[in-house]
Design a protein that fits this description.
Order of helices and strands: HEHHEEHHEEEEEEHEEH
Structural class: alpha+beta
Number of strands: 11
Number of domains: 1
Low-confidence stretches: none
Largest sheet: 7 strands, antiparallel
Radius of gyration: 18 Å
CATH topology: Jelly Rolls
Mean pLDDT: 94
Strand content: 15-25%
Distance between the termini: 29 Å
CATH class: Mainly Beta
Number of helices: 7
Strand order of the largest sheet: 1-9-6-11-4-3-2
Amino acid sequence: MATTVCAPETTFDRLADEGWAEIQLTPEDAEIIANVVAAAFRFFRADQVEKAKCQVGVGSGYRPYGIEYSRTADRPDEMETFSATASSIGCEYGLAEADELNRQCANAFDMMEKIADQIVIAIADGVTGGTWKQMLSGRVRHWSTLQINYSRPIQAQSSFINEEHEDGHLLTLVYSTAPGLEVRLPDGAFLPISTSSDRAVAMLGGLASLMTDGRLRPLFHQVRPPKDCDERISVLFFADLAPEFCQPWIVGESNRGIDIANFVKSNPIRFGLQKYGSD
């Protein structure tokens, strides 16, 4: 059956050691990703004026270049985006390309949510030695976002599509159509991550560190514009627990007294976006 992570315990071990892990996609999952990528290319190639009309609520729909940034507002990320949440996947935008993309995003959201769900539970089990499936199953759905990033690397004005950062979420799942993603190693060097049609990458963020008193480290990463690449799509699933479930799995000096629920709600602000709620 699709959306079943092979050996989630092994995935946890790799995340705990390295901050990232490859996820093997089933053929069904790979087809879902291929469909959302194809729809994304059609949407982002549409007329700019029409794309600009495709925004619904906070953090959903289209976002043009110049708003989101990785480190500072004066150096925006070199991309446009389209985002879907649990509350926006049923929206109609009135532009055929946007409506088709949103329908494909709904399928990708459901698939990637199930993968994230399994990994989050494996993380909680792994750091505590307990069993968290009953409590945490389904708890990422309403506080997660599927985001499609679109860039034109050969037209990039800077050395990065996304400068070095960590996402701040509990877990990020990412699939890219072209190279460019680099992860920071403990010695400060950056390792390029290869791409393929049947693999995604899971990366830990700041919430994972807060939930575990720093036992798990957020993965700092960056994206360079690959040479001779006209268009690049990334499909990202930013997974967070519902705030009421953000009681730390390990309590210690680094997280004692911190309002982790508010950290989840406020995390988008540091990337130039608006603080968000669930639905």
